[in-house]
Amino acid sequence: MIPNLLLAQISPFSIVMMSITLVLLIAVIVLFFVGKRMDKKQAEQQKQIDAARQNVTMLIIDKKKCRFKDAGFPQSVVDQAPKMTRLLKVPVVKAKVGPQIVTLIADDKIFDSIPVKKEVKAVISGMYIVSVKLAHGKQELPPAKKKNVFKRTVEKLQEKAGAKPISKK
Q: Which one of 16, 69, 112, 154 has the fewest CB atoms closer than 10 angstroms to its CB?
């Protein structure tokens, strides 16, 4: 009887706000622990990638982003991939390594810097391209992305104020 009297004195808006706050707090706590678990998994996977690294010279034939199923991997590789990965678009590189043409997955960070129709020295781990260096000549940087209106305005205002530009870490 006493808890009912206590709830009757609180406005409905306050009850709704407390409920929303409680749900958000629970979501943040769950995401924190899931993030810690994912960090541990990623560190373990990075150790495996580092252990299996090989330096290879290859000729890049083609690169594109396509679904994992449509990338042209053998059926055994597709079956071993997690279900979520099969639905995502992955950066795929077709390259000639020695006498054979293979399909490899590139790291998202280096995908834009991989030149097409050129010979490169790559560090691979299994079928995963970890890093790429141009075998002959200078590395061409990909064209810089255009800045949106907001970023240009912020830079102009910082320049007028004499402040240092904000840099990404």
A: 16
